Amino acid sequence: MPAPRTVLKYATIWLLIALALVYLLDWAVVSVRALHPTATSPYETLTVPRILAIPENNGKTEYQIDQLHPEESRTCVHSLFPHAGHGPCWYVQRKISQPVPM
Q1: What per-residue confidence (pLDDT) applies to 98?
Q2: Pick from 90, 51, 86, 87: which is nearest to 72 by CA?
Q3: Which whole number is the average pLDDT over 22-30?
Q4: Cα angle vertex 36, ends 21, 27, to 5°?
Q5: How far is CA 42 from CA 13, 60, 78, 88, 96, in A?
Q6: What is the end-to-end Cα distance of the chain in Å, rounded?
Q7: What are the domain boundaries of the chain?
Q8: Of 15, 17, 49, 93, which sees the most CB atoms within 10 A?
């Protein structure tokens, strides 16, 4: 029976190889979908109102729409991982709707 340290080393190597293959497959799918401008474009622009979270002296928080930049737009990519400088939509959708702390 091989030593536990050897098994852990090989498991880590195979895990990294599998992760690299998943990333390459994800990149290939996004690249092919981006070549043909159709309704299945991998890129999407999300626009939401920009909400400011302003702390008050009594410990409460007041929420207001930003007067200078009332809307926020971000481009995201429909994939598992970030590509071309854009975050994945599943991550950006969660983060874009959060208020901006002041």
Answers
A1: 85
A2: 51
A3: 95
A4: 15
A5: 31, 40, 5, 10, 18
A6: 58
A7: 4-101
A8: 93
Residue type, 46: L
**To which residue do tokens 């990333």 refer?**
23
DSSP letters of 35-66?
A: HS-STT-SEEEEEEE-EEEEE-TTS-EEEEE-
Pure H helices in the chain:
4-35, 89-96
Pairing between β-strand 51-55 and β-strand 43-49 as defined by DSSP bridges: unpaired
Which 3 state secondary structure label does DSSP give 8? Answer: helix
Q: Dihedral of the CA atoms 31, 35, 40, 43 (nearest 10)?
A: 60
Distance CA 16, CA 12 (A): 6
Confidence of residue 1 (pLDDT cuts 50, 70, 90): confident
DSSP annotation of 86: B
